[in-house]
C-alpha cells in the first residue's frame, strides 16, 4: 500500500525565521565587537569566554542532550593544555602540531575512560567522573616532568602565517573562529541520523536499541567529542596564558563548567556561549566586589554561585537560553526531500510464509515462571493476537521475542533463523520492529524526526559526515521515508509538531510509523489501543488492516477485546504464564475456559 504525499508544506511565517536569524545576529555581534574601540580588558574577557565555550559546548552535547553527567570536563582541558605546553617548551614543536597530538591523546584517554565508565548508570557515572577527574588532577600535580604543582612556564604564544596571535584582537579572531565553528558543527550533528540517535539516549536505551541504535557506541562517541572540544580549549588556554599548572583543570573547574552549561541552557548549543559569558563576567565582578563588601579576600564568589545554582535549578531548570528560545516562534523545517529516491527495502516473505516461530519459550524470575512453554506462529499477512488477564505473561513473551529479556528455555525463530539470545538491536536488524506499552519517544524532537529514528539502520552516514554536511542526500532519503510512513498511518499533517505535544492516540500512531520506517517483516504492537478514544481505536484498526493487506505480519498484545476480535486472524490466550488455548476470534469468544480466565472462575 503506497500513500500519496501531501502538497508541500506552507512556508513558515516571516517571524518564525527569528530563530534562524538569532544565531546569525550573535555571530554578527561577535564579529563587530573587536572592531569597536573596546578596552583590551574586555577583549581579553571575551577571549576567556570563547575558551570556556568549547568545554561547555561539550557538556551541552554530553549532559544536556545525551543525559550523561560529567564533572571531569576540566581534566580533558588539562590534557590538551599540558600536551602542548610540554611538547612546545621541551621539544620546540609547533603548537599547530601539538594541537593534534593533544587531540589524539585526549581522544584516546576519553575512549578508554568512557568505554569503562559509560556502562554505569544512575549516580555511578557522575561519581566515576569525579574519581577520574581527581586522579588526573593529582597526576598533573605530582609528575616531575610536568613541573608538579608549579606547572610549566614559558609557553609561547601562537603564530599564524608568521603573525603573532598575541592575547588580544588576533587571538579573539582565532578563538571565536574555533568556538563558532564548533557550535555550528554540533548543530549540524544534532540535526542528522547520528543526532537523532544521540537525542534518544537521555530517555534510556530500550527504545533506541530497539530502533537499532548502538547506544554504548553513541555514548562513548559524544563523550570523546566533548573531550576533544575540551582539549582544543586547553590548547588555546595554554598559548593564551603562556603557562599551565593543575589548578584550572581540577574538580572545582569541572563543576564550574557544568554550572555554565546548566545556567546557559544545557540542551541548547547557544546556551554554551550564554553560560560561559554570564559566569565569567559575574565571577570577575564578584571577585572585585565581594572582598570589598566583606572586608577580607577569599573566593566568596563560590558562595554566590552555590546560591545561584539552587535558584537556577528551581526557577530556570532549562537555563537562560531556553527562557529566550521558548519565546521565539519555532521555525518549520523546509521540506526538501520529496524528490529523494526510495531507501532500499528488504526482501519480504511470501504471503502465508511462517515469519515468527515461537517454540516452547520459558522465562523464570527467581521462583516465578512468568512464561511457561509457550508456542505459536505468525505468518506473513496475518494478525496474531496475544491475550490474557493481567500478569498472564504477554509482555514478557513480547520481550523474549524482541530480545529485551533472555530466554530461560525454548527457541524463537524469525524467518527460519534462531534469534533467541540475540540483542534487541540484532533482532531489529533482521526485520523485527516494535512499539511500547508505555509510549517511548523523544518529546522535544518533531514527529518527523522521531519517526526518522526508526530508519536508523537504513542509513550509513555518521557524525563526521553530519558535521561536514556531506550526509544531506541520505538525510533527504530518510526524511522522505519518515514522511511516507507518517502518511501511511494518517499522521502526515503532524510531522512538524513536537512529539511531546501529541495526544495519546497520535503518540501511538507515531510509534507505529517509527516501527514501519525500519522496513520490518514482523511488527510487534504492545497494547496499541491503551488510552485511545473510540474514534482513535477505529483509526488504529484501519491502519492495522491496511498493513495486513500489504503483507505485514503483526503480533498484537492487547486488552481491548473489541479491537482484538475485530482485527485478529488468530488468537493465542495465556493465563498464569501458560498457553490456555488458541484459535480464531469466534473460537476464542465461545471458549468457556477463556471466559472463566477473564472472570476469574474455576475451569
Ligand atoms: N522483571 C521481572 N521481574 C520479576 N517478575 C516479573 C518481571 N517482569 C514480569 N514479571 C512477572 O511476570 C508475570 C507476567 O508479567 P507480564 O508483565 O508479562 O504480564 P502481562 O500479561 O503482560 O500483564 P499486563 O497485561 O498487566 O501487562 C507477572 O507476575 C509479573 O509480576
Automatic annotation (TrEMBL):
<feature type="transmembrane region" description="Helical">
    <location>
        <begin position="257"/>
        <end position="279"/>
    </location>
</feature>
<feature type="transmembrane region" description="Helical">
    <location>
        <begin position="123"/>
        <end position="140"/>
    </location>
</feature>
<dbReference type="Pfam" id="PF00005">
    <property type="entry name" value="ABC_tran"/>
</dbReference>
<dbReference type="Pfam" id="PF12399">
    <property type="entry name" value="BCA_ABC_TP_C"/>
</dbReference>
<keyword id="KW-0812">Transmembrane</keyword>
<dbReference type="InterPro" id="IPR001851">
    <property type="entry name" value="ABC_transp_permease"/>
</dbReference>
<dbReference type="GO" id="GO:0005524">
    <property type="term" value="F:ATP binding"/>
</dbReference>
<feature type="transmembrane region" description="Helical">
    <location>
        <begin position="20"/>
        <end position="44"/>
    </location>
</feature>
<keyword id="KW-0472">Membrane</keyword>
<dbReference type="InterPro" id="IPR003593">
    <property type="entry name" value="AAA+_ATPase"/>
</dbReference>
<keyword id="KW-0813">Transport</keyword>
<protein>
    <submittedName>
        <fullName>Branched-chain amino acid ABC transporter ATP-binding protein/permease</fullName>
    </submittedName>
</protein>
<feature type="domain" description="ABC transporter">
    <location>
        <begin position="356"/>
        <end position="601"/>
    </location>
</feature>
<dbReference type="InterPro" id="IPR051120">
    <property type="entry name" value="ABC_AA/LPS_Transport"/>
</dbReference>
<keyword id="KW-1003">Cell membrane</keyword>
<feature type="transmembrane region" description="Helical">
    <location>
        <begin position="96"/>
        <end position="116"/>
    </location>
</feature>
<dbReference type="InterPro" id="IPR027417">
    <property type="entry name" value="P-loop_NTPase"/>
</dbReference>
<keyword id="KW-0067">ATP-binding</keyword>
<feature type="transmembrane region" description="Helical">
    <location>
        <begin position="56"/>
        <end position="76"/>
    </location>
</feature>
<dbReference type="InterPro" id="IPR043428">
    <property type="entry name" value="LivM-like"/>
</dbReference>
<keyword id="KW-0547">Nucleotide-binding</keyword>
<feature type="transmembrane region" description="Helical">
    <location>
        <begin position="300"/>
        <end position="317"/>
    </location>
</feature>
<dbReference type="Pfam" id="PF02653">
    <property type="entry name" value="BPD_transp_2"/>
</dbReference>
<feature type="transmembrane region" description="Helical">
    <location>
        <begin position="170"/>
        <end position="190"/>
    </location>
</feature>
<feature type="transmembrane region" description="Helical">
    <location>
        <begin position="216"/>
        <end position="237"/>
    </location>
</feature>
<dbReference type="InterPro" id="IPR003439">
    <property type="entry name" value="ABC_transporter-like_ATP-bd"/>
</dbReference>
<dbReference type="InterPro" id="IPR032823">
    <property type="entry name" value="BCA_ABC_TP_C"/>
</dbReference>
<keyword id="KW-1133">Transmembrane helix</keyword>
Amino acid at each position: 500500500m503506497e500513500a500519496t504525499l501531501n502538497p508541500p508544506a506552507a512556508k513558515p511565517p516571516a517571524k518564525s525565521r527569528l530563530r534562524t536569524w538569532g544565531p546569525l545576529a550573535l555571530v554578527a555581534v561577535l564579529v563587530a565587537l573587536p572592531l569597536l574601540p573596546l578596552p583590551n580588558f574586555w577583549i581579553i574577557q571575551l577571549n576567556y569566554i570563547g575558551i570556556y565555550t568549547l568545554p561547555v559546548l561539550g557538556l551541552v552535547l554530553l549532559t544536556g542532550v545525551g543525559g550523561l553527567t560529567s564533572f571531569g570536563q576540566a581534566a580533558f582541558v588539562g590534557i590538551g593544555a599540558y600536551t602542548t605546553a610540554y611538547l612546545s617548551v621541551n621539544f620546540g614543536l609547533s603548537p599547530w602540531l601539538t594541537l593534534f597530538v593533544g587531540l589524539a591523546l585526549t581522544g584516546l584517554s576519553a575512549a578508554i575512560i568512557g568505554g569503562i565508565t559509560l556502562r554505569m548508570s544512575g549516580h555511578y557515572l557522575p561519581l566515576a567522573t569525579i574519581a577520574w577527574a581527581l586522579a588526573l588532577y593529582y597526576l598533573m600535580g605530582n609528575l616531575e616532568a610536568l613541573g608538579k604543582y608549579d606547572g610549566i612556564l614559558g609557553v609561547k604564544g601562537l603564530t599564524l602565517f608568521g603573525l603573532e596571535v598575541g592575547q588580544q584582537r588576533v587571538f579573539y579572531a582565532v578563538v571565536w573562529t574555533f568556538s563558532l565553528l564548533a557550535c555550528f558543527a554540533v548543530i549540524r550533528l544534532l540535526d542528522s541520523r547520528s543526532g537523532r540517535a544521540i537525542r534518544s539516549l537521555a530517555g534510556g536505551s530500550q527504545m533506541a536499541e530497539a530502533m537499532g541504535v548502538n547506544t554504548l557506541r553513541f555514548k562513548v562517541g559524544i563523550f570523546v567529542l566533548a573531550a576533544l572540544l575540551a582539549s582544543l580549549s586547553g590548547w588555546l588556554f595554554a598559548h593564551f596564558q603562556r603557562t599551565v599548572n593543575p589548578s584550572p583543570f581540577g574538580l572545582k573547574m569541572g563543576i564550574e563548567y557544568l554550572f555554565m552549561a546548566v545556567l546557559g541552557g544545557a540542551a541548547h548549543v547557544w546556551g554554551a556561549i550564554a553560560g560561559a559569558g554570564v559566569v565569567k563576567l559575574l565571577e570577575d565582578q564578584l571577585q572585585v566586589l565581594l572582598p570589598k563588601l566583606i572586608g577580607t579576600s577569599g573566593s566568596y564568589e563560590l558562595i554566590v554561585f552555590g546560591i545561584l545554582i539552587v535558584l537556577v535549578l528551581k526557577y530556570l531548570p532549562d537555563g537562560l537560553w531556553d527562557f529566550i528560545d521558548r519565546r521565539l516562534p519555532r521555525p518549520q523545517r523546509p521540506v526538501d526531500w520529496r524528490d529523494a529516491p526510495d531507501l532500499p527495502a528488504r526482501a519480504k516473505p511470501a504471503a502465508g510464509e511462517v515469519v515468527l516461530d515461537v517454540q516452547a519459550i520459558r522465562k523464570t524470575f527467581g521462583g516465578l515462571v512468568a512464561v511457561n512453554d509457550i508456542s505459536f506462529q505468525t505468518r506473513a499477512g496475518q494478525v496474531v493476537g496475544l491475550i490474557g488477564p493481567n500478569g498472564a505473561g504477554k509482555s514478557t513473551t513480547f520481550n523474549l521475542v524482541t530480545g529485551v529479556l533472555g530466554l530461560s528455555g525454548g527457541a524463537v525463530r524469525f524467518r527460519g533463523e534462531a534469534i533467541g539470545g540475540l540483542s534487541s538491536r540484532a533482532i531489529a536488524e533482521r526485520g523485527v520492529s516494535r512499539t511500547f506499552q508505555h509510549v517511548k519517544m523523544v518529546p522535544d524532537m518533531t514527529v518527523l524526526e522521531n519517526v526518522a529514528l526508526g530508519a536508523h539502520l537504513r542509513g550509513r552516514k555518521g557524525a563526521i559526515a553530519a558535521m561536514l554536511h556531506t550526509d544531506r542526500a541520505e538525510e533527504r532519503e530518510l526524511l522522505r521515508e519518515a514522511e511516507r510512513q507518517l502518511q501511511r498511518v494518517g499522521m502526515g499533517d503532524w510531522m512538524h509538531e513536537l512529539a511531546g505535544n501529541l495526544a495519546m492516540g497520535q503518540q501511538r500512531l507515531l510509534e507505529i510509523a517509527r516501527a514501519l520506517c525500519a522496513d520490518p517483516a514482523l511488527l510487534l504492537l504492545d497494547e496499541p489501543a491503551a488510552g485511545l478514544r473510540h474514534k482513535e481505536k477505529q483509526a488504529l484498526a484501519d491502519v492495522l488492516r491496511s498493513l495486513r493487506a500489504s503483507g505485514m505480519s503483526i503480533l498484537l498484545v492487547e486488552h481491548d477485546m473489541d479491537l482484538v476480535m475485530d482485527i485478529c486472524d488468530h488468537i493465542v490466550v495465556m493465563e498464569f504464564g501458560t498457553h490456555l488455548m488458541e484459535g480464531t476470534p469466534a473460537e476464542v469468544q465461545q471458549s468457556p475456559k477463556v471466559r472463566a480466565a477473564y472472570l476469574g472462575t474455576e475451569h
